[in-house]
Amino acid sequence: MQINQVVPSLNFGDAVSSDVIAIRDVLQKKGYESNIYAKLIHPKVIKQAKHLSLYHGNSSNIVIYHFAGAGRNVTDFVKKLPERKILIYHNITPAEYFYNYDDVLYDLCSRGRKELASLSRYIEIGLGDSTFNCLELEKLGFKCTSTLPILINFKKYEVFDEELDSKLKQDGNKKIIFVGRIAPNKKQEDVIKTFYLYYKYINESSTLYLIGRKEITPYVEQLKELVETLGLSENVVFTGVLSDKELNTYYRNADVFLCMSEHEGFCVPLVESMHFNLPIIAYNSSAISETLGNSGILLNEKDYVFTAELLDVLTKDNLYRESVIKNQRKKLNDYNKDKIEGKLIEVINFLSDTDM
């Protein structure tokens, strides 16, 4: 029996594509023949997948379809396959966040929710990488759902850029970071406004690093204009996409991870921050409270002054800082790779042992 995965696009460095590759590796390790099929494949991961046109259905196999936006004809292709089907739902950002910013993304997200609803009668098991995602599946009529957190390969966090490491250490500034593509739902403007108060009234020896892909040009320009207006051009850095070595080095040198995002289906950077013993401040939205559990510092409202003061406390009060990190380390155990691998295989075995 083969267990293959289908995804509309396999990209480089994003959470969904990393999850797809990690699942393929687990399935192969467990002895299954398993491949990834995608309609679009980023050049940097070209060896990881086959083009969707090469996929041939077989009723004795299982197909896992990863869904995070409108798949267009890929979704129709999956519906017609004779395989037994598992859906992994990574959530869809509400389309209104992209209104007047990106017409293509607005359309993909709008149609994605309609596509998702249409899949319910074709899918035997619907998996969400958070309970937040599973609840959405259940509302749309998916009968058999379960939570499967994103499978994270923690070995990739063992490499560093020593030149960058030296540079970051030398400047002596307190470093606030947020990791995530530059997008309206991530609310980088709220991170910038909070940082402004921290920088202006508490600590001018500080830098904010906004780490992530810069795809939505009007939004990026809006943020840069805000930075300039606030006089932060020298203290707010947009890094763009980073290599694993570079990203790990920023995590290792950062003082606080600040997340003001309003929509996350899981939020891998929260787990990455836990791994690097980086204290987290995060706004309580979507799946964030679930991913954090009883760890980090969860904000129920966006009070920029209060949050700036929290940044100050976390960078000065070592006992408080360590108590936050201690709780994060406990929560990190929930994302143990072996645990999630075991859950994935349980789902596969359940489907294999269940009659059509």
How many strand elements?
Answer: 13
Mean pLDDT across residues: 96
CATH fold field value of the largest domain: Rossmann fold
Shape: globular
Number of domains: 2
Give the SSE string. Answer: EHEEEHEHEHEHEHEHEHEHEHEHHH
Helical residue percent?
40-55%
Number of helical regions: 13
| Residue share in β-strands | 15-25%
CATH class of the largest domain: Alpha Beta
Indicate the radius of gyration in whole angstroms. 21 Å
N- and C-termini, Cα separation:
16 Å
Low-confidence stretches: none
Sheet with the most strands: spatial strand order: 3-2-1-4-5-6-7
Topology:
Blueprint lengths: L2 E8 L4 H15 L6 E6 L8 E2 L10 E6 L5 H8 L3 E6 L13 H17 L5 E4 L2 H9 L5 E3 L14 H10 L2 E6 L8 H14 L4 E6 L5 H13 L6 E5 L3 H10 L2 E4 L8 H8 L4 E4 L4 H5 L4 E3 L4 H13 L1 H15 L4 H17 L3
Helix pairs in contact: 5-8, 6-11
Write a structural description.
The chain folds into two domains: 3-151, Rossmann fold (3-Layer(aba) Sandwich); 159-334, Glycogen Phosphorylase B (Rossmann fold). The strands form two sheets. The chain has a seven-stranded parallel sheet, with helices on both faces. Strands 10-9-8-11-12-13 form a six-stranded parallel sheet, with helices on both faces. The protein has helices spanning 15-29, 73-80, 103-119, 131-139, 162-171, 188-201, 217-229, 244-253, 268-275, 288-292, 304-316, 318-332, 337-353, and strands at residues 3-10, 36-41, 50-51, 62-67, 84-89, 125-128, 145-147, 174-179, 206-211, 236-240, 256-259, 280-283, 297-299. It is built from 13 helices and 13 strands. The model has no long low-confidence stretch (mean pLDDT 96). By secondary structure, the chain is of the alpha/beta class. β12 (280-283), α10 and β13 (297-299) form a beta-alpha-beta unit. The radius of gyration is 21 Å and the shape is globular. α5 (162-171) packs parallel to α8 (244-253).
